[in-house]
Write a structure and sequence with these properties.
Layout: E1 16-21, H1 22-25, H2 29-36, E2 43-50, E3 55-60, E4 69-70, E5 74-80, E6 86-87, E7 98-100, E8 104-107, E9 116-119, E10 124-126, E11 143-154
Antiparallel strand pairs: 1-11, 2-3, 2-11, 3-5, 4-7, 5-6, 7-8, 8-9, 9-10, 10-11
């Protein structure tokens, strides 16, 4: 709910539809990517909860397939939920917004590493300072265990 207030204005009239809850559909990057394949012209909100109950997410406007990189479709990334919300916009330092590979889903790059990296089992992640979004690490620990991933499409 809190994150919803920070989405691009164009998406605020749309309803979020949960298309991938990892706790019921499984922990697979392939399954996550398959969940958004039919939502070509919709915004996609990815929400991550760590085993320490930290919550953050990413928003992008492009339906990604394996090997795809988005060159500017990302609007806001990443968002840390809780008592303080911080939205990181692209800084213009590079074009490393989001990339879907066979082993990882990556957001941001350069600097100390990716803003957010999620492994193919959707169980481990990492977050570093990134030049792409000018963010600090999203979790208390740079490497973390993922408890839950939810993917919403805005339609």
């Amino acid at each position: 709910e809190v994150i919803w207030n920070y989405l691009p204005h164009i998406y605020k009239p749309y309803d979020p539809c949960l298309i991938f809850p990892s706790d019921s559909l499984g922990y697979s990057l392939e399954g996550l990517a398959a969940s958004w394949k039919d939502h070509v012209n919709n915004g996609i909100l990815l929400v991550v909860q760590t085993s320490n109950n930290e919550v953050f997410g990413a928003f992008f406007e492009q339906n990604l397939k394996e090997g795809d990189s988005s060159l500017g479709a990302l609007q806001k990334l990443p968002v840390r939920a809780g008592t303080i919300i911080k939205v990181h916009h692209p800084t213009g330092a590079n074009l490393q917004y989001v990339h879907l590979g066979q082993q990882f889903l990556l957001f941001g790059g350069s600097g100390e590493g990716c803003s957010l990296q999620i492994d193919r089992e959707l169980r481990r992640g990492s977050s570093h300072r990134s030049e792409t979004f000018g963010n600090d690490p999203l979790a208390a620990s740079e490497d973390f265990r993922i408890e839950l991933i939810e993917c919403f499409v805005l339609q």
